[in-house]
Design brief:
heterodimer, A: 149 residues, alpha+beta, 7-stranded antiparallel beta sheet, two-stranded antiparallel sheet, 32% strand, B: alpha+beta, 8-stranded antiparallel beta sheet, 10 strands
Chain lengths: 149, 169
């Protein structure tokens, strides 16, 4: 009986330990996520599984053309996958004659599928603090593997 | 002996980091923007416990003090009081519009020290996704040990809340 209890405690301890390691890796290094939605076609198709890394946003190493994952400005529980089109200070054409300058510490995000994407054209520049990670490549399904960046 | 020590660090570090991420951590408050609740006296700085568990679902309430990533500088964390939640109508102090309706997924934050605080009156509504924690108590110096209670000055209550109260009277 006693050995069973100690075994149980040991197992729970191991689960907590490995849970913490997994948490740290997936939060600070890299992770895999499934992207649903058609806003990034033809780069990422709906339900593709993508490898993401957290280092470049952490060290503010974001450049134009990167595909990033950010918290949605209008719904913080949802994540969006978009392409960085404008960096602070860039002038973005928003209409036929109108344009907007991206303010400091913000980026301009747009989906590759411009007809079917709610992005900075709808909610304006996105603060850098909302960017969580950079998408690196598609790992699943096979036919899309490594098909971007 | 040494390998044991290294081993315990390798095991302990992720546990510690996870604890700080999920439960909370202690941080120093800089500046005068939250006077008189935090840093009332220039000579000493307060340390507050930032509760991350309390904001895990992001259901913040008016009057709470929260910490958030500054929309002006992502490397800086600022500490402010929540004045308006999504849907509220705020009468602003020196913002480009006199009355603002808080859009979905945003909130209105202000420092208590009006005029000495860079807050929503300067940069507008902030996205809820920038919120990192809720300040729940002052832990240092010992003479200032206390829970931080939720409080909203009457003059800063959102207009839609005032009209609700009026209607119920």
């Amino acid at each position: 009986m006693k050995s069973l209890t100690s075994k149980l405690i040991k197992t729970v301890g191991y689960i907590i330990q490995y849970g913490c390691v997994v948490h740290c890796v997936s939060k600070y290094l890299g992770d895999i996520v499934m992207c649903s939605g058609r806003s990034m076609e033809p780069t990422v198709y709906s339900d593709d599984i993508v490898f993401i890394e957290h280092l470049s946003p952490r060290f503010r190493y974001i450049s134009r053309g990167d595909v990033i994952i950010a918290k949605c400005p209008t719904n913080p529980k949802q994540y969006i996958c978009k392409r960085v089109v404008g960096l602070p200070g860039d002038k973005i054409k928003t209409g036929f004659t109108t344009s907007q300058t991206v303010p400091p510490a913000h980026v301009w995000l747009e989906g590759d599928n411009r007809e079917n994407s709610s992005d900075s054209r709808a909610y304006g520049p996105v603060p850098l603090g909302l960017i969580c990670s950079r998408a690196m490549f598609v790992i699943w399904p096979f036919k899309h593997i490594g098909s971007f960046v | 002996m040494v390998s044991n020590f290294i081993k315990s660090i390798i095991i302990g570090l992720p546990i510690g980091v996870t604890f700080l991420d999920l439960i909370g951590y202690v941080a120093r408050v800089d500046g005068i923007s939250m006077q008189p609740v935090l840093n009332p006296d220039k000579s000493q700085t307060d340390y507050v416990f930032l509760n991350r568990w309390a904001v895990r679902s992001l259901d913040i309430k008016r009057g709470e003090i929260i910490s958030l990533i500054s929309p002006k500088d992502p490397d800086q964390t600022i500490i402010k009081r929540v004045v308006g939640i999504p849907g509220d109508i705020i009468s602003t102090i020196g913002y480009k519009r006199e009355v603002v309706r808080i859009p979905e997924g945003h909130c209105w934050v202000e420092g208590d020290h009006t005029g000495h605080s860079v807050d929503s009156n300067h940069f507008g509504p902030v996205s809820l996704g920038l919120i990192t924690a809720k300040a729940s108590c002052i832990v240092w110096p010992p003479s200032r040990w206390q829970y931080i209670r939720s409080f909203l000055p009457e003059s800063r209550v959102p207009l839609n809340v005032i009209s609700q109260v009026m209607a119920s009277v």
